[in-house]
């Protein structure tokens, strides 16, 4: 790995020194080395999947519960989430 990766990892791990034990767990020691690179790679690989799951859970509960109604209108016009709104969410509309 290059100098930019090394110094970037060094800066990020130095920002985490205020949490006791976290840096030694992430780095595999007290210096940035090969285990640090592998752990950063795993975190960067897994994080998008976790983020996508959180987004889907958020959309599910938003459509299940409904969003806030600041004007207080009581309406019986409800569109079912599946398949109508789910297809719109998947398409991005």
From TrEMBL:
The keyword Transmembrane helix is annotated on this UniProt entry: yes
Domain Cytochrome b/b6 N-terminal region profile span(s) in chain numbering: 1-71
Pfam families according to UniProt: Cytochrome_B
Entry keyword ATP-binding: no
GO cellular component: membrane; mitochondrion
InterPro entries the UniProt entry points to: Cyt_b/b6_N, Cytb/b6-like_sf, Di-haem_cyt_TM
Membrane-spanning intervals of the chain: 6-28, 40-61
UniProt entry keywords in alphabetical sequence: Membrane, Mitochondrion, Transmembrane, Transmembrane helix
UniProt-listed Gene3D superfamilies: Cytochrome Bc1 Complex, Chain C
GO BP terms, alphabetized: mitochondrial electron transport, ubiquinol to cytochrome c
One Gene Ontology term of the molecular function aspect: quinol-cytochrome-c reductase activity
Protein name: Cytochrome b
Taxonomic lineage of the native organism: Eukaryota, Sar, Alveolata, Apicomplexa, Aconoidasida
